[in-house]
C-alpha cells in the first residue's frame, strides 16, 4: 500500500483507478464520492436499478480500507434498526448497547425513500453531528463517516419523499447513468468468469484518509471565489421560478466541495470552474420550484443554468493568487 503523503494527487488517482477495475467508465462519479469523503459530507445516488450504485459503494469502501454496512430501507424498518438498541444483560444487571449498522465508516442506505420519515430522521443526527443518541446516551460514530443513500427516481409507489431537512444534509446528489456500449461490453467481459470485486485490493488506509481530509482544509479560496459562491446561492433565492432557494448550508457545501475537488485534481487553490462544475450537484436537490413553474415544464436544471448565466464569473487580478 502506497502511503506517500507527498503525493496526495497520486494517492487519490490510485483509488479512482482501483474502483474502475469494477465500476467501468464512471471515474467522474468516483471523483464526486471522494469529494464528499474528503469534505466530511454525504452523497445521494439517484438512478434507475442495475446501473451499479450499490457496487460503487462497496468497491469504494474496499479500496479505502473502510468498514462497510448496508441498510436496506423498507416500510417496516424502525429507527432502532438503524442506530442500535440497548439490551438488558441479566448477568451484569446492566443495559448494554448493541450498535446498529450506522456504526461503520461507509454506510449504504439502500432505497432510503422506501421507509417512513420517522426512520429516515434516524439518520439526521448521524449525518450532521457524527454521533447518535440511544436511550439518552450519545455514541460517537467512526471516523471517517459517510452515508451514501440510493433512491429510484422512476418508481414512486410505496415511497416516502425525503423531507427538505434530510435532503439538505447531503453534500452532493449524483447519478451514474447507463454505460456506453463499449463500457457495457467491457463489463460483460470482466464478469464472464467471476466478479472483479473479489480480487480488489485495498489502496488507502484510515490514517491516510484522515491526513488527506486535513490537507483539503489548507486549499486556498480567493475572496472573489467565496463571493461568487454566495452570489450564485443568492441568485437561486431570487429567481422568479424558485419557491425555496439554496440555504447557507448549501453555500458551505459548495465551498467545501470545491476545495476537495481542487485538491483531488492536484491543485492547492480553487478556481471558478470548480464551483461551476459542482453547482448542479450541490444546489440541485436543495431548490424547490414554484408549482406554476413545474406545471410550465421548468426544471431545477433550467433554473441553475439561468443562474449561472446571470452571475458574472470572477477574474483573478494581477498580484492575487490563483
UniProtKB/TrEMBL annotation:
Q: Which UniProt keywords apply?
A: ATP-binding, Nucleotide-binding
Species whose genome carries this gene:
Effusibacillus lacus
Protein name, per record = ATPase AAA
Q: Give yes or no: UniProt keyword Nucleotide-binding.
A: yes
The record's annotation in SUPFAM superfamilies points to: P-loop containing nucleoside triphosphate hydrolases (SSF52540)
In this record, what's one Pfam family? AAA_lid_2
Q: Where's the ATPase AAA-3 domain?
A: 42-172
Q: Which family does it belong to?
A: Belongs to the MoxR family.
Q: Which GO terms describe its molecular function?
A: ATP binding; ATP hydrolysis activity
Instruction: Tell me yes or no: is Nucleotide-binding among this UniProt entry's keywords.
Output: yes
Domain annotation ChlI/MoxR AAA lid: ranges = 235-306
Under the heading InterPro entries, the entry gives: ATPase_AAA-3 (IPR011703), CbbQ/NirQ/NorQ/GpvN (IPR050764), ChlI/MoxR_AAA_lid (IPR041628), P-loop_NTPase (IPR027417)
